[in-house]
Structures are given as C-alpha cells and as structure tokens.
Design brief:
The structure is a single chain. By secondary structure, the protein is of the alpha/beta class. It has one domain: Vaccinia Virus protein VP39 (Rossmann fold, 3-Layer(aba) Sandwich), CATH 3.40.50. 31% of the residues lie in helices and 26% in strands. The chain has 9 helices and 11 strands. Strands 6-5-4-7-8-10-9-11 form an 8-stranded mixed β-sheet, sandwiched between helices. Strands 1-2-3 form a 3-stranded antiparallel β-sheet, with no helix packed on it. Helix 5 links the parallel strand 7 and strand 8. It is globular.
C-alpha cells in the first residue's frame, strides 16, 4: 500500500520500497538517481526552456512532471497512472501548482498509448512498475512500435527499467526498440553495466541517431555517476538478443531482496 510522510518533502513508498520523492518547495530537487537521469534526458531533448508535449506512462507522485513544468514552462504534459488510489492520494496530499499544464489520467498505459494520436508527443517517459516489476504488456516489440508511432520525428522515448546480469530482460528490451527506432542508448551506473549488482537502467530511443555528448557529461557529473552506452559498445551488449512479441512477453525480473529497500 502507498504511504507518505507528513513534511514538505514527501517520500512515497509502495510495499516498503521507495517509489517517489517530492519536495513541494523545490521541484528541481530530485532525490533518486534514476529520476535525475530521466531529467537529464528532458534537459537535452530541446533547447533550454523550450516547451514540449510530454507523455508520462506511470505517474507516481509526479516528480518528473513537476520538474518539467518548472524547467519548460508552457509544456503540455499527460500523465497516465494505472493506480486510481495513488492518483487520488497524490491529488489530495501533493497537489500540482495551478496552471502547470499537467493532466493526470487513471488509465492503463498500453491502452492509452494505443489510443493516442500519431506524432502527438515530443517525449515519452515510461516509468511503469506493478510492484517492483515492469508489466509484460510494456515489454514487447509491439509496444515499442506503438511508442514510435506516437512520437514526432526527432522525438525521444525514455524508460526506467531494472535488471541484473546476465541482462536477458534488458537486452531483449533494447532488441525490441532496435526494431522500431534508429537510435538507441542506455544509461546506468558502471557497477550495474558490469553485472556487479541489480539496478536501474534508462533506455533511450529515437528515430534518428542520438547525440549523447552533453547527456553523458551530465550523467557523469552526478553524485553517483552513470555511463551512457551507445553505438558499438551498446551493439556488443545487445548482440544475440531477439525482439519479444506480445505472445511471449513477460514482466521484468523481480529484484533481489533488499535491492530497492530503504535500508
């Protein structure tokens, strides 16, 4: 069950695992490393301050939509969150600023994506977990093709995923998006990429080759530095992986006990 604290900085947990952190006084404060990496992606998606049309699959406590509203005024943001109880909880305790351009919908992410107009989003951010696992309906090549259909030319897809060695799930996800997009990249801490521990990884995809220089510098400068893999290095990581159809899709692997706990 979701739970929150009672201060101006809010930590939302689901079944004891940290799910979202929001500082109501400072939407630029991003506590979780993977959220900072997603924010770096948004920072590099267009010229600083330029408004974007953003589709967030998975809402949590709306940390990233709040960040985008603060850094890209005038953006139109749709947030799709399956858990209606969570939507109600966040609306009651963590209301969005008036006129921020964010609309929240209690709906299924895959169904919403399939119903979305073609070329209607500049950026899609996927951070969808059922408990601690990405649902199977969001892990197939058909899902990747739907994301490609909804993005405008030059748009970006960014997904928070989690896996550990031998990376069967993560490699399959990259194979899926390689079928639908021309450009791929992956952001993760070196220890995760080397298979030393289970952890988050941000998958990036675009219909054109990705320019990752600025993004790589931003990720490397974080308190917990991350590396951006792309090109030949990413091709070696993915080699041998095959796309997964809807009929064979499965949820992401369950994390080892304590992998994402509060300690």
């Amino acid at each position: 069950m979701p739970d929150v604290d009672r201060e101006r900085a809010w930590l939302l947990t689901v079944d004891g695992a940290p799910q979202s952190y929001v500082d109501l006084d400072d939407p630029l404060h991003l506590e979780f490393e993977y959220v900072r990496r997603l924010a770096h992606v948004l920072d590099c998606a267009a010229e600083p301050g330029a408004a974007l049309d953003l589709l967030h699959l998975g809402g949590g406590a709306l940390t990233l939509p709040r960040y985008a509203a603060a850094t890209r005024a005038g953006s139109r943001q749709a947030v799709v969150e399956f858990d209606a109880g969570l939507v109600e909880l966040v609306a009651g305790h963590l209301p969005l600023p008036e006129g921020c351009g964010v609309t929240v919908h209690a709906a299924d992410a895959r169904a919403w994506l399939e119903a979305a107009p073609a070329r209607s989003a500049d950026v899609i951010v996927a951070d969808v977990f059922g408990g601690s696992r990405v649902p199977a309906q969001l892990t197939s090549v058909e899902y990747a093709r739907e994301a490609a259909r909804v993005l405008r030319p030059g748009g970006l897809y960014a997904a928070n995923l989690a896996d550990g060695a031998p990376f069967d799930f993560l490699r399959a996800q990259l194979a899926n998006f390689g079928e639908a997009f021309a450009g791929l990249a992956l952001i993760a801490e070196p220890a995760v990429l080397r298979g030393r521990r289970f952890g988050n990884a941000v998958l990036l995809a675009s219909d054109a080759p990705l320019e990752v220089g600025v993004l790589a510098r931003l990720c490397a400068g974080d308190a917990f530095p991350a590396r951006v893999e792309f090109g030949d290095g990413l091709a070696r990581f993915v080699r041998g992986a095959r796309p997964v159809a809807d009929a064979d899709a499965a949820a992401s692997p369950a994390p080892p006990e304590g992998a994402f706990s509060l300690g």
